[in-house]
Amino acid sequence: MSPMRLFILGALDARGDMHGHQLRLLAEEERIHLWADVSVGSLYGALKRLANEGLIEEVRTEREGGYPERQVYAITAEGRETLAIQREDGLTTVQMKHDPFDLAISRLDPDRLDHLAEAIENRLVVLNSMLADQERRLVFAAPYLTIAETWVMHHRADRIRAEIDSHQKLLATVPDIVADELTRKNHHD
Predict the structure, then answer these.
(1) Nearest-angstrom CA–CA distance, 9 and 86
(2) Concatenated DSSP letters for 110-165?
(3) With left for phi above 0 and alpha for psi between -120 and 50, is residue 31 left, alpha or beta?
(4) What are the distances in angstroms from CA 89 to CA 63, 93, 94, 109?
(5) Which residues, other chains included, contact 145 with Cβ-Cβ below 8 Å and sequence gap of 6+?
(6) What is the pTM of this model?
(7) Model confidence over 88-104: pLDDT tens digits?
(8) For residue 39, what is the DSSP state?
(9) Longest CA span, the chain
């Protein structure tokens, strides 16, 4: 599932023919970068890829005032089929990406165990900063969001809170982890 594909195809399906600048303005108006994994800067490249794949097509070129010519795109029948798949995938696919931290915590350097608590505390600082940032974004964006978009932003904050809770539990087990790692090191020596 590609959030950028879903955004572009969904916008063209719902709003009709648009050029890249109109899509960019829509993304900025909806503040999509605050609540979805969509980079407004990569919009034009995505339009070219979707056109090359036959999911959208150039229907005309427009020129307004002194602005350069702009290609206006429409969604194709194949694009509508892909949009339906993207929507379904987005609603049904559960994605929890692996965090490299998990592998690192299971492969600790026995000579640096005294730094483990500090590393976890530093991660907690970063996570708390991320949560504060997400909460600020929500306050800023709230007047412009739909009910569903508001839920999405709260969902991200909830996920960060869960990560903070998990790290706090991990921090409490550091003495046990260190003791276990030292025991295992001594058995291997």
Answers:
(1) 9
(2) GGGGGGHHHHHHHHHHHHHHHHHHHHHHHHHHGGG--HHHHHHHHHHHHHHHHHHH
(3) left
(4) 37, 5, 9, 40
(5) 31, 35, 153
(6) 0.74
(7) 998 898 888 888 999 99
(8) -
(9) 77
* Structure tokens belonging to residue 45: 């490249």
Provide the residue type at 51 as one letter.
A
Bridge-based pairing of strands 70-75 and 56-62 is antiparallel
Query: What does the pLDDT look like over 120-154, one tens digit per residue?
Result: 999 999 999 999 999 998 998 888 888 998 999 99
The topology (CATH level 3) of 3-92 is: Arc Repressor Mutant, subunit A (1.10.10)
Contact of 8 with 47, CB cutoff 8 Å: yes
Instruction: Specify the residue for token string 């307004």.
Output: 64
Q: What is the DSSP letter of 1?
A: -
Residues 184 and 27: their CA atoms lie apart, in Å, by 53
